[in-house]
Amino acid sequence: MSKFASALVEWQKQHGRRGLPWQGTRDPYRIWLSEVMLQQTQVAAVIPYYERFLRRFPSIEALASASEDEVLQLWSGLGYYARGRNLHAAAKAVVARGSFPGTAAEIEELPGIGRSTAAAIAAFAFGERAAILDGNVKRVLARCFGIEGWPGEKAVEEALWGRANRLLPQNEIEAYTQALMDLGASVCTRTPKCSACPVSRNCSARRQGRTAEIPAPRPRRALPQKCVTWLLLLNRGQVLLEKRPAPGIWGGLWSFPEAPVNDVGDYCAAKLGCEILTKKKLAGLEHGFTHFRLQIRPLLCHVAKTPQLESPGRLWIGIGQARDAAVPAPVRKLLCRDFLHLLATR
Ligand code: ADE
């Protein structure tokens, strides 16, 4: 085993994270679920979602036979909902093929699973020698082996994957893989704690005093802003929700109708089947996506329903029930934050 790998495995035994709910199992379903939830989301935030999800869907078969609405409802609040939709689609694919794929290469064929996640699942579930390379691991390897440039450029990516593959130990792949993840998450962070690092003595960036420069930061563009008005339409303690189209942001989730720039009244009458009785602007909120920032302006309207219009993608629903539905985080926030306004029914 390389010095790098053995130092990491030793460190993992003493300092790595242990006792997490997805450790100590070889069940590929449980491992897969954890790896998908842990993409872009921190361990502490994932744990309650993970446990709740498994209580409701204890097996791939249970997940495959659920409705997408129910899957998204349990995902609601974790963000990046494509992960939830892909998970559901992948569960169906696994059930259709008869068993969970047994190698990283086959796992990568499932919807929503990239090369690094497939490798992590194969390493933890089957002990396969497969290299992971998520954002944290890229930082560790770039620093340790002095791989310069922005990870994202093709040549840098290739150098990192090459290094990740060459470093793989013959044994203890599970401990090694977990060690790399834990080191990247807890020690080799943006401002690294080099005194706690098992490989700092040989770390190229550390020896050159350049941990702040390696890896090179992503070239940043200012994120564009988008602005929407959300209609919180209220009638007898119920609000109107619309199912958002997929693909698209929050596809498949239930949200408040978006108002056109003008003619909110006409829009409500013609498209939503209600007449506005009172209008009140509520405090706005912001939601960040990877590619833009969304400014949300909520407009609370008491409405009278006109009899026609009940369409399949729209639903009048009690406020309490709406909070527990598959809704994006800012919708839930409004349903909770402006609860008293919303309760003031007429
Ligand atoms: N991030 C991604 N996978 C992880 C895992 N298995 N443990 C902790 N953090 C992770």
Characterization of this structure:
The protein has helices at residues 3-15, 28-38, 43-56, 60-64, 68-75, 82-97, 104-107, 115-126, 135-144, 154-167, 173-186, 204-207, 264-272, 319-323, 329-337, 339-343; strands at residues 225-235, 238-243, 254-255, 274-281, 285-288, 293-305, 314-318. With 346 residues, it is of the alpha+beta class. Strands 1, 2, 3, 4, 5, 6 and 7 form a seven-stranded mixed beta sheet that branches. Helix 1 (3-15) packs across helix 11 (173-186), helix 2 (28-38) runs antiparallel to helix 8 and helix 9 packs across helix 11. The longest helix is centred in the first third of the chain and has 16 residues, at 82-97. The chain is elongated and about 75 Å long.
Task: Let me know the average pLDDT.
Answer: 93
CATH 2nd-level architecture of the largest domain: Orthogonal Bundle
Total separate domains: 2
User: Strand content of the residues, in percent?
Assistant: 5-15%
User: Largest sheet at a glance?
Assistant: 7 strands, mixed
CATH topology of the largest domain, which one?
Answer: Endonuclease III, domain 1
Give the names of the bound compounds.
adenine
The secondary structure category is alpha+beta
What is the 3D form? Answer: elongated
Order of helices and strands: HHHHHHHHHHHHEEEHEEEEHHH
CATH superfamily of the largest domain: Hypothetical protein, domain 2
* Helix count, DSSP H or I runs of 4 or more residues: 16
Helical percent range?
Answer: 40-55%
State the CATH class of the largest domain: Mainly Alpha
